[in-house]
């Protein structure tokens, strides 16, 4: 058997095709055989890289959170911005990211998997929140943010966005979504982090309609 000289390309191909199938059929209804058929590979070739469908969705989730390194590098180039402006820039970039828009509905569908839900919560409360806390701390120092505890504040707003605002657990209702975004905006202002301005509020509504409707 010829040796695969580019295993990372094979892994990415498996992830890309799986993401497409998860988006079309749903995570639970997609089988390994569906992925095999779409790829034109043997089951052995897929199992060489992933032991199960759960491993594939976990890898997709890790890709989503590994983008934090890219965001960290991205925001470091905006030296003329204060902490609050950098937070807004990060959210705007994420809400307009086409791969994130494709990935997020799949991630939400996979919340029925307890292992994946725990992993998502852990990533949100640890790595993602730690990154957000550094920007909040920067905003506290430059006066653009008045939060009391940067890490707690970061954890709260990320939990609200990732698991309350963006949720598959209730039917999509456009007016209810608008009310939730308005409520979140007021809550963030009361927390001393007025991150959601008119432009970002509209970005949120467009994103939520795309991934939830």
Automatic annotation (TrEMBL):
Keywords: DNA-binding. InterPro entries: Homeodomain-like_sf, HTH-type_Tx_Regulator, HTH_TetR. PROSITE patterns: HTH_TETR_2 (PS50977). Residues 31-50 bind DNA. Coiled coil: none annotated. Residues 8-68 form the HTH tetR-type domain. One of its GO terms (molecular function) is DNA binding. This is TetR family transcriptional regulator. It comes from Longicatena caecimuris. The lineage of its organism: Bacteria, Bacillati, Bacillota, Erysipelotrichia, Erysipelotrichales.
């Amino acid at each position: 058997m010829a040796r695969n000289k580019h295993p990372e390309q094979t892994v990415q191909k498996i992830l890309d095709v799986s993401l497409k199938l998860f988006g079309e059929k749903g995570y639970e209804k997609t089988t390994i055989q569906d992925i095999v058929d779409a790829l034109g590979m043997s089951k052995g070739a897929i199992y060489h890289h992933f032991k199960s469908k759960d491993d594939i969705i976990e890898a997709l989730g890790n890709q989503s959170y590994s983008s934090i390194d890219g965001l960290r590098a991205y925001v470091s180039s905006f030296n003329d911005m204060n902490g609050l402006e950098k937070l807004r820039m990060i959210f705007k970039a994420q809400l307009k990211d086409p791969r994130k828009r494709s990935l997020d509905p799949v991630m939400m569908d996979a919340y029925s998997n307890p292992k994946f839900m725990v992993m998502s919560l852990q990533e949100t409360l640890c790595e993602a929140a730690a990154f957000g806390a550094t920007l909040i701390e920067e905003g506290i120092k430059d006066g653009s943010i008045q939060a009391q505890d940067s890490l707690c504040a970061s954890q709260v707003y990320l939990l609200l966005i990732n698991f309350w605002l963006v949720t598959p657990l209730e039917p999509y209702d456009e007016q209810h979504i608008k009310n939730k975004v308005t409520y979140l905006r007021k809550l963030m202002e009361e927390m001393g982090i007025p991150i959601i301005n008119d432009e970002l509020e509209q970005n949120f509504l467009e994103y939520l309609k795309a991934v939830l409707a």
